[in-house]
UniProtKB/TrEMBL annotation, chains A, B:
Keyword tags: DNA-binding, Transcription, Transcription regulation
Source organism (scientific name): Pseudonocardia zijingensis
Keyword Cell membrane attached: no
Superkingdom of this protein's organism: Bacteria
Annotated region of DNA binding: 45-64
Pfam families: TetR_C_1 (PF02909), TetR_N (PF00440)
Cross-referenced PANTHER family: HTH-TYPE TRANSCRIPTIONAL REGULATOR RUTR, TRANSCRIPTIONAL REGULATORY PROTEIN
Record-annotated HTH tetR-type domain positions: 22-82
This protein's name: TetR/AcrR family transcriptional regulator C-terminal domain-containing protein
The UniProt record lists the keyword Phosphoprotein: no
DNA sequence: ACGGCACTGGGTACGCTGTTCGCAAAGAAC
DNA sequence: GTTCTTTGCGAACAGCGTACCCAGTGCCGT
């Protein structure tokens, strides 16, 4: 007696018996994603999704084992938005930077992705395809496999960091960032922490220069070149 | 009429009037931290903390405006665990790597820190001290201030990433990582995704070699050297 | 063709959460 | 001594994820 797979990705959506379902994972995921896009991750509750679909909260559990699984579906759905059709060009740095730009675009379209704790939401099939794509670009490099994985993980981390800072800089509308700015201002004007004050006072880099283009190649070089 | 400060760090704990409080922020924070250490961040609810302190849930709101503020107190409390007494040595790389080791130790003592979304929990006074310490080590470098800030942010990101992977590798006891491993195994044995399979099959680096020592200097070099 | 069974829909309900309100008691300020 | 601010906290509210149960539905084996 083999157990039912614990991973949602190995669990078939339908076994064939019984009445044909009125919904499916894709539809539920789409509803959840549009809800998150519109009102943030906090608005993604089973009840709201169900209401959006015109059904009851309990019905969703026919398609998903838990809310966390639904979050995984959402994350993988947006992972599927990046285009992986272009084969490796031979220039791995350019390939990875291009990938990073696409991932950043996805993050910008779905800022709630930043609220998903990276270690708690797992890797789905689209994310795996993305990973394979990145590793294919690195295929020519004579570097241990785990080191390549680290480099790709760092790439994702950098993209998330970049989007986070650019969102914080752009919109200080939230009460949270108001409080944050209030405190940071008090600290810098207090005179203690001179290095911090100096660093914050430094002119930001030219707007045209892209953070990804500036940082990523240097960092990848540090990680992947001997 | 000036508004009351939105940041908890600028709000005095006591104004002097009324009866003397039975608790204080430090005590509440300590209770919350020990609760999180023992049973994870999910166990940190206002009711449980209050019960631990022998009081009612509503009483906590005399000391803290919201649960999120309490999380900030917790994060800053562990940020205070790192020792910043050693002045810059003149070797900024060594200084930053040493700082990273201390931060990693703090993460290991309090793994729930990884569950705090980095962008949502703000920077408190201890974290600011830490930042100042790192910037002091970089004082001699002729590099724009914002670039230094980026580098320090990346340093923190790497430490978090490192602890996350080592915790996932160490304990696959949770149902989540079981599901994750199940899916990843299915993918690699399916034959699609050859690069991923190869990367995962690669021998892990020698256990003695420290991830921080291996990765950090190279990455910092990539970010901070011309 | 048909009986049985595996499945779906969804109302109801449980236990938990963060948070607000209101009131009694306590102590500093004038 | 009066006044005013602050504290403790029981009660309650709205919302959450999720388990349970029952009725209905359509495929499968015979």
């Amino acid at each position: 007696m083999t157990d039912r797979p614990r991973s949602i990705w190995l669990r078939p959506e339908r076994t064939g018996r019984g009445p044909v379902p009125e919904h499916d994972r894709a539809g539920i995921t789409a509803a959840a994603v549009s809800l998150a896009d519109a009102h943030g991750l906090g608005a993604v509750s089973m009840r709201r999704i169900a209401a959006e679909l015109g059904t009851g909260p309990a019905s969703l559990y026919r398609y998903v084992d838990s809310r966390d699984e639904l979050l995984e579906l959402m994350a993988d759905a947006v992972a599927g938005e990046v285009d992986l059709s272009r084969p490796p060009s031979g220039n791995w740095r350019a390939d990875l930077v291009a990938l990073a730009h696409q991932v950043r675009a996805a993050y910008r379209r779905h800022p709630w992705l930043l609220d998903l704790v990276p270690g708690r939401v797992g890797i789905g099939p689209r994310a795996v395809d993305q990973l394979e794509h990145a590793l294919a670009a690195l295929a020519g490099l004579d570097v241990p496999g785990p080191v390549k994985l680290e480099a790709v993980a760092m790439l994702n981390g950098i993209v998330a960091l970049a989007v986070r800072t650019e969102l914080q800089a752009g919109g200080s509308a939230t009460a949270w960032s108001a409080a944050q700015g209030e405190f940071l201002g008090a600290v810098t004007s207090a005179g203690t922490h001179p290095h911090l004050a100096a660093a914050l006072a430094g002119a930001p880099p030219a707007a045209e220069e892209d953070l990804l283009d500036r940082i990523l190649p240097r960092m990848l070089a540090g990680l992947l070149e001997p």
